Amino acid sequence: MQGMPAFKARLGGDRLIWGLVAILSMCSLLVVYSSTGSLAYRYSKSTEFYLFKQSAFIAVGICIIYFAHLLDYRYYSRIAVWAYILSIPLLLYTLVFGSTINDASRWIRLPIINLTFQTSDMAKLALFMYLARQLSRKQAVIREWRKGFLPLILPVFLTCILIAPENLSTAMLVASTSLLLMFIGRAAMRHILLVMALAAIPIGILVALAIHYYDPVARNARELPAALGVKRVETWIHRVQDFMYADEQEVSYQVQQAKIAIAKGGWAGLGPGKSEARNFLPHPYSDFIYAITIEEYGLLGALALPIVYLAFLFRCIHMFRRSPYAFGGFLAMGLGFTLAIQALANMAVNVNLVPVTGVTLPLVSMGGSSFVFTCLSIGIILSVGRDLEEKAHAGTPSVVTPNSSDA
What we know:
Layout: H1 3-10, H2 15-35, H3 37-42, H4 47-70, H5 74-97, E1 99-101, E2 104-109, E3 116-118, H6 119-137, H7 145-163, H8 168-184, H9 189-212, E4 214-215, E5 220-221, H10 231-244, H11 253-265, H12 289-322, H13 326-350, H14 369-394
Antiparallel strand pairs: 1-2, 2-3, 4-5
């Protein structure tokens, strides 16, 4: 016990964020353990196997957060450029040679350990570190197109165009978070609106195709022509149709089972470990874990998780306002927004507010590369908070100076 005070002294950063991480980790253990019954049956394993596996992921994740928060956050500025450069060939390799899982090529298989790794998770983190660095360095020219905005939007475009063919939802989340960070970084509104207008064109085409190839009489999708028979394009069109015409046709199986789970949860929920939809709902331990949470914990679970993620985002905004230098503030905001937006997107899918996507619920869904990079992102955010804490103890004033770069 003598080492406990020394450990607490080294546990820097925002204490509320540490608490939120603990809450989400406990929630993950409970719901993953409850929702992996069908997975355990399919692979002839026990549910305790997945409980121990998730416990190991959480233990590794906490270690990643701890050691990442011990590093001076300025170190991440120095590696941001190299991390971003590395992410581009990895994304290209994934597109061409990636492992196909659930009809999508988003993963590469790591040799020796034989584990899959979703390269878009690394690319997201690298991109937001790079954007934070560039925003902090270009504040003097940020409102100019050629010197300020173009060097920011081109890396975002390149990353999103490489992610989109196999993971459109993640590409859209990355693009929207990047534009939001640029808005906070004082980029010209006319430049941001121009990019949004250009991005709306392919989305509009996708919606138009979904409407055109839907038969209102037969209430089902028409057969797509060969030119649109590319697997992922076909998947996107059908998902949009399932969402737009949900009241006129039998909705997709995933959406149907998620609605059943939510309806069974009611106000009080069925109780921990008593989910019935987990045996029918595809991916109840990852993409649709929020529906299982509502089924077992009712309205309390439905409200608690969004509040936790919004509290996390609020603390990141608080860091941004206190940060005396631009890079630290932009880094905390960029990573905070991407985690919060991903969480809200996952929950919106589960309650059928948006079409089905493949995004997970950060720190709650069953562990994978997304879990690991989420923990790394939180560790980086806490590194910024730790620096602010040390400055506060030293009596250094914390005043936001957006024209000053610590990158």
